[in-house]
Amino acid sequence: MSHTIHDKQKLLNRVRRIRGQIDAIERALEEEKGCMDVLQQITSCRGAMNGLLTVVLEDHIRTHLTDAEPAEDGEANAREQLIEVVRSYFR
């Protein structure tokens, strides 16, 4: 069973919001809205896609990657460090 099943509804809601944002981009282009309006909608959609990717990737890391060695001296383990790197990349 896929780990995405646990948060299926939450993920589907995100996808539906993204679909709405893509539809808004299409409408803006059809209505010949200004470049700034279109660019703003594209960047909003990109941010939403990055957010979805972050959530699924983070859950994948937590579910499927294990540490070879336990963390020492209160440091975050390798899995948590990787998650933090991924989060910072998508900010």
TrEMBL record:
One GO MF term: metal ion binding
UniProt record, GO biological process: negative regulation of DNA-templated transcription
Signal peptide residue numbers: none
Family, similarity comment: Belongs to the FrmR/RcnR family.
Name of protein: Metal/formaldehyde-sensitive transcriptional repressor
